[in-house]
Amino acid sequence: MSGSRRIARRQFLGRSAATAALTIAAPHVLGGAGRVAPSDRIRVGYLGSGTQGLRNLMEALPRQELHIAAICDPNRASNDYPEWGRNEIRDRIRKFLGDPSYGEGVAGCRCGREVGLEVTRRYYDAHRDAMGVRECKGYVDFRDMLEKEKDLDALYVMTPEHLHGTLVLTAMRLGKHVITHKALANVLHEVELAAETAEKSKVATHLFCAASMETTPLIREWIEAGAIGPVREVHNWSSRPFWPQGMTSLPSETPPVPEGFVWDLWLGPAPHRAYHPAYTHAVFRGWYDFGTGALGDMGHYSFFQIFNIL
Q: pLDDT tens digit string along 48-70?
């Protein structure tokens, strides 16, 4: 909230005869040092509880100014998500919740809506004294979430790439602020629409990615000072991809849709096709309809630095 609003509220309370009664209220009700009053919190709808979604969720939850009020994912929960390392997600959650027994006996990497809800609710319950009472509801369909949670201030988008454009455009057209994981969309036209809509809507927007490195300004100073002379070439490489990509033919098998997974919602605006695990989770990046390949996944990390430096 703006400083003028806080001053106005403080002045009002100072002139009110009810001010004395406020001294008996708990600190988390009014805010105070290190706390944000409920009326000043940013109510967030969190979209996507896969591996990357959970990683970012655990960074967002401790922020006093954010209230993760809803979590939406068409997958209820499953143990088939790929990780950066064995038990990486489970161990992160254990450390975050302070529970060394979390996920005991669960084979594979478990993610999905129920996992995001559990992590959120347990964290808020454990920090109620410092953060106040904060509830979080779960949704399968983001449209249902927006219909029932009309007081959401912002959306935090951590879904597969083919849903980004649809979600950020919907948010901005409803006047809601939006932060989205890279890429902005997997279709150029949707990228252009998102940029135009952001300009018109005037809401706060942000493309989230780990793109700003502390070394970038220093290297730029060296280059501008002529430390290595004129830069004529930049050689850029990546260890990606870690997954199949460049596929041109659809799988011939038609396995059943896993229980608790709403396939049509996961497809979203993409052309309909029968479910197959070759499309979901991190593998989506290798399909034209769902991802942007290794360049879309990793290009911004290094290209952003090169763009800023040169």
A: 999 999 999 999 999 999 999 99
